[in-house]
Amino acid sequence: MTVSIYVPRDAAAVALGADRVVAAIESEASARGLDVAIVRNGSRGMHWLEPLVEVVVGHERIAYGPVKPSDVASLFDAGLLSGADHPLCHGAAKDIPFLKQQTRLTFARCGITDPLSLDDYRRYRGLTGLEKAIAMAPEAIVTEVTDSGLRGRGGAGFPTGIKWKTVLEATGSRKYIVCNADEGDSGTFADRMIMEGDPFVLIEGMAIAGLATGATKGFIYTRSEYPHAIATMSEAIEIARREGILGPSVLGSGRAFDMEVRVGAGAYVCGEETALLNSLEGKRGIVRAKPPLPAHKGLFDCPTVINNVISLASVPVILDRGAAFYRDFGMGRSRGTIPIQIAGNVKHGGLYETAFGLSLGEIVDHIGGGTASGRPVKAVQVGGPLGAYFPRALFDTPFDYESFAAKDGLIGHAGIVVFDDTVDMLQQARFAMEFCAIESCGKCTPCRIGSTRGVEVADRIAQGIEPEKNRELLGDLCNTMKFGSLCALGGFTPYPVLSAMAHFPEDFSPAPRVEAAE
Amino acid sequence: MNLHVSGDVGTRTLAIIDAMKDLEGPLLPILHEVQAEFGYVPQESLPVIAKELNLSRAEVHGVVTFYHDFRDHPAGRHVLKLCRAEACQSMGADAIADRVKALLGIDFHQTTLDGAVTLEPVYCLGLCSCAPSAMLDGAVHARLDAASAAELVQEARR
Q1: Is B89's CB within 8 Å of A431's CB?
Q2: Sorted alphabetically, which InterPro entries does this protein's record hold (chain B) (predicted)?
Q3: Any CB–CB contact under 8 A between B34 and chain A?
Q4: Domain check: are B42 and B99 in the same one?
């Protein structure tokens, strides 16, 4: 009898040796004359257990991890194929607390299915959202998305339905759906995991967006740093086209929608929507002034929906289960679920999808299990390189858009990076400025010049040169960047800098220099 | 085609353009393909691209130089990219980078004298939950420590 074994194809698993584990399993099985069928699934998101090997025993999938190639022989000795106990065994995968406590709507299939099997996709309710959308008027689809309360998961939190409505009502010979998959924020990997682990859900979401707005062409703009996501996504699009999900008649509806993957070239600023559009057009990734909004004049001056991967990948479940089902999760004006990405110096790093509203402390201490180093948590950066640093004192902040804004922070793309007490917050503030200087598109002065001056001022503080005056100067500079920059790169770089200064003042008061400056 | 294309670079560039110029917004895909073909974007290919896409040479030059990925000269035989973004910093990426630089005897953006390895910084590979991470010729590596980073350098040296 053939035993099915799942080993993820996700880049995180591969980076930790999943391909070598597969080779070891195959050779061990063949040496023992055992029949195994290996399925390369997406990741379940429990990255501290990767590579996570799952063996199908009856109706259960028994999990083992983290598995090294050198563990494989002992796993077979213990009785891997019958789900036997072993020091690396965690029992049934779905019962692991980290997974069991989640509410997986957008990531419902990720880690369970073969990402490139359309049969798997359909078996787990795939395409039902698109089928329902085909039977609906465009206005009704837009209303459903609006009523769900879905807001842009890229960071800005703009209501997705309102964006779609604007494009639906705009006139244009051609309209576009652009998926922003330029996930450049450190601490985030949800877009990558969906593209590698459940690409059809993104295709389905984009096709629904096309039907809702009258757009016939879609682009997924992703990063050259994501070769695995590019390969899986491109293959999934080929399959979808072959099976009539994409093309001149989406699922036989008579309405056309097709799409392609486009690859950036290492510019962080292209994650900003107007810079992304310029890049897609083949120009320098320079930010455009708004208005006009992309919804009116976007890609090639045509009305364009530009949404984050997770926003679009959340649409199929909304259409499938209804707006009310999705809206019932969450708190305040943050409805539905959010895939929180727990990263950095943390014991249990990975992806945790849950309704909005958990406190930051619950996420870091209980779900993440504290630091990997075992030292105390000093700071967590929430929302990527443009997000604020939070001290323990603010760990009661509930995870939603408004609560974080009220604490001078942002949830961004929901990435959380944990730092232990060895971190020097002045150096983190300096890095924020350095990163902005490296990645600035150069269009506006506060970002282009301010970031370089910011690095210099931080260095002067570190050297103990007129620290009080330079701290004030750094604050002033942040203010100029915050209110004078054209886009979020220059405008939000002050968040990590100001939060580091506000919450960790001790790191900004180095011992005064003994020698005189000259 | 009334175009004076001289030499091998021009001809090969032209073949790439011919295959891709019907794409919407073809410049970036063409540049990626040119870099895949030559290992960098040769100066000689720029006027060919400009002419074929009806752009000025300055526009093409502007695009090539804007993006970190495009090189104006060949890299070493292997390209090692180390992530130096925040999540990797929190797990000691700076120390790993110092170690790798010392082992290779070069800094970021440099190539070893024997032409074996080019070292580059990268800002996030999306492996932030298993930091620090690196990419060697497109293959990803995570949870690096001093020993595995040294192994990676060995592999790159070969």
Answers
A1: yes
A2: NADP_DH_HndA-like, NuoE-like, NuoE_N, Thioredoxin-like_sf
A3: no
A4: no
For residue A383, give the nearest of A425, A420, A345, A417 by alpha carbon.
Answer: A417
Are residues A189 and B129, on separate chains, in Cβ contact within 8 Å? yes
B126:A372 CB<8 A: no
Residue of B nearest to A416 (CA): B87
Diameter over CA atoms, chain A: 81
Same domain, B94 and B48: no
Cβ atoms of A478 and A458 closer than 8 Å: no
- For residue A100, give both structure tokens: 């069991």
- Chain A CB contacts of B22 under 8 Å are none
- B99 within a domain of the structure (yes/no): yes
Range of the domain at B23: 7-66
518 residues of chain A, pLDDT tens digit each: 899 999 999 999 999 999 999 999 999 999 999 999 999 999 999 999 999 999 999 999 999 999 999 999 999 999 999 999 999 999 999 999 999 999 999 999 999 999 999 999 999 999 999 999 999 999 999 999 999 999 999 988 999 999 999 999 999 999 999 999 999 999 999 999 999 999 999 999 999 999 999 999 999 999 999 999 999 999 999 999 999 999 999 999 999 999 999 999 999 999 999 999 999 999 999 999 999 999 999 999 999 999 999 999 999 999 999 999 999 999 999 999 999 999 999 999 999 999 999 999 999 999 999 999 999 999 999 999 999 999 999 999 999 999 999 999 999 999 999 999 999 999 999 999 999 999 999 999 999 999 999 999 999 999 999 999 999 999 999 999 999 999 999 999 999 999 999 999 999 997 655 554 44
- Cβ atoms of A353 and A242 within 8 Å: the answer is no
Q: Is B2 on the interface with A (CB under 8 A)?
A: no
CB of B29 less than 8 A from some CB of A: yes
pTM value is 0.96
Specify burial of residue A2 (Cβ count, 10 A radius: 0-12, 13-18, 19+).
exposed
Closest residue of A to B126, CA-based?
A: A189
CA nearest to A219 within chain B: B24
Nearest-Å Rg of the Cα atoms of chain B is: 18
Domains of chain A (ranges; CATH) run 3-100 (3.40.30.10), 118-327 (3.40.50.11540), 330-420 (3.10.20.600), 425-508 (1.20.1440.230)
B114 and B135 belong to one structural domain: yes
Q: Give the CA count within 13 Å in the CB-facing half-sphere of A273.
A: 24
> Are the Cβ atoms of A263 and B29 closer than 8 angstroms?
yes
Q: Is there a single domain that holds both residue B33 and residue B88?
A: no
Least CB–CB distance from A268: residue in B53, B123, B141: B123
CATH number at residue B145: 3.40.30.10
**Number of domains observed in the structure of chain B:** 2
Does the beta-carbon distance from A283 to B143 stay under 8 Å? no
Q: Do B82 and B114 have their domain in common?
A: yes
